[in-house]
Design a protein that fits this description.
Layout (H helix, E strand, L loop, with lengths): L1 E5 L11 E4 L17 H37 L1 E2 L2 E2 L4 H11 L3
Antiparallel strand pairs: 1-2, 3-4
Helix pairs in contact: 1-2
Amino acid sequence: MKIGKHEDKVGLRLSPTNEVIFDDVRIPAANIIGAEGKGFGIAMRALEYARVATMSFAVCIMIRTLDEATKYAKERTSFGKLIIKFQGLSWMLADMTEPK
């Protein structure tokens, strides 16, 4: 077994993702998970659950980002007034809440 190419991801960089290469690896029958030859299907079902969890993380991050941006806009001033009062910024925050 050896570690292959490191994947350059857009997010979740604290969770490294690399290829794992198995070459002429033998697994004792007592250590096989599932039926022989069915590993790909098992792995795909596991990924289905991981995708749901990943999307829930993304939604939570988006909600927190909107909350923090709104909080900052209500505290920061420019040209003597809160930046939340500027129409362009208000439109940006509104666009963040719209489903695309």
